[in-house]
Amino acid sequence: xxxxxxxKNSQVFDVKIQLASSKSESNRAxxxxxxxxxxxxxxxxxxxxxxxxxxxxxxSTDAVADVIDxxxxxxxxxxxxxATNQAKTMTGTPRMCERPIGILVEALKTIGAEIDYQKxxxxxxxxxxxxxxxxxxxVTIRGDxxxxxxxxxxxxAPTLPQGLTIHLTGELxxxxxxxxxxxxxQAFGVEAEANWEEKVIKVAPQSYAPTSYxxxxxxxxxxxxxxxxxxxxxxxxxxxxxxxxxxxxxxDSAIVEIMSQLGVKSTFTKDGVLLxxxxxxxxxxxxxxxxxxxxxxxxxxxxxxxxxxTFTGIESxxxxxxxxxxxxxxxxxxxxxxxxxxxxxxxYKVSGSGFAFGSADISIATYDDHRMAMAFAPLAMLTDxxxxxxxxxxxxxxxxxxxxxxxxxxxxxxx
Length: 415
Fold this sequence. Notes:
Strand content: 15-25%
Number of strands: 22
Number of domains: 2
Number of helices: 12
Mean pLDDT: 95
Low-confidence stretches: none
């Protein structure tokens, strides 16, 4: 089994990190640019495997589109290939084929798409045949499962002969990601009408205009550095993260406010944001509905600092790269922490640690999940820690271990 050993940080550090680019922005920009005839100029695209997979599949003429484990790529390309009438088989890893896509497929069928499930109904692999004619210009879709279904429909909406009106039901999750999609569509010349109170988004038929688009650095990737600063035992610790904007489109920029309560001050500079240590509060209550990808990082930080926390809005973690709720429960227990469901599928308690850091080895399983590896890596501020299957970070932040070497010693033992 591949693994890396991270040795406890033993000195104060002041480092500058050029973060990976946002794969969320990159993946949307790639789809929109493709719908613009591939004529735009996309700058600072993410090196993450998910984005590189998107680039490869957009350029491919193969009949099979294998997204590997990229959920966003699966959802966005399902809508894109359908709207552009490309006959494609959509598939991925065994885990990818266990992740539901029925909500999106049924919405596309309402519009007029011909899509067949090749195995289990509601799940990949899919056979896409395209849209013969548009049967409806309105769809109703749940807003509390995955915003990526909604974004996938929004991006193809202006290319449909009748446009599209999307009615959202239930609680709306990850609204910042929907707003990100709308803002990027606007950057390419497409206007939409969003009424959040009535939960309706209308997009008239119109054409995307090729443009030059610069992708921001990744706030999800930034979150691990916030955790590193929060857990550092040296008060003079400083980390400057390049390429981040104060007024970001990314929902995960919420990490600024979350970590201000966990001991990290953010000062925006001309190049990004400077992180420094401040006193932490003794408790945290946070709704992760709009930023579920931050939950693992924040949970680890709270447990390691002995901060009691209440989490809501993390139901979607069960259908991510792994069941992240179960994975967190398993791994937090290794250093005295717990994640307890107190209201079914609604509210969770994160309990602080009674673990004497440095007293025993900690080995973290990553469950083929990039965020498990990176969320637990900051424990190296307090103790030696082993991260199993560290290669998983290529999904979103390929240079993570190289960047981490600026603050801790890393050994990759011979297997």
